[in-house]
Sequence to fold (126 residues):
Amino acid sequence: MTAPTGATPPENQTPPGSQTPPGSQTPPAGQPPPAYQTDNKAVVDSRTADLVAGPGGVMTIDVGVITGDLTLRTELFANGDVILRVQYKDAAEWYTVQGGTAHLAAPADLDAVHTIALGLLNRPLG
Fold:
């Protein structure tokens, strides 16, 4: 049964077209996070850099705020979606940054998005 147009689906039902992060699967150490599925497309390109979170840390949708020495991974999907993820430096678990999703007009914009995200999140002096 389909909910009427404009109706809110029940809490246990995902609205059509919504994006769902992967389950609690953790990749082996040193491996990238499992692909965040957006329209069944896998990651086609990514950028990674280390950073130091500023006061207040980095808010994630998975575990809340994380602080300290982190690694940022900016993932590009075949459909143009971009997801920002962070992990504690050298850890296995990756977390999706709150508000860290966007759609790119061109894949060439990945470098610019990664550079801007790194500039916003990297605050070694506070």
Notes: Residues 1-27 have pLDDT under 50 and may be disordered. The longest helix spans residues 110-121.
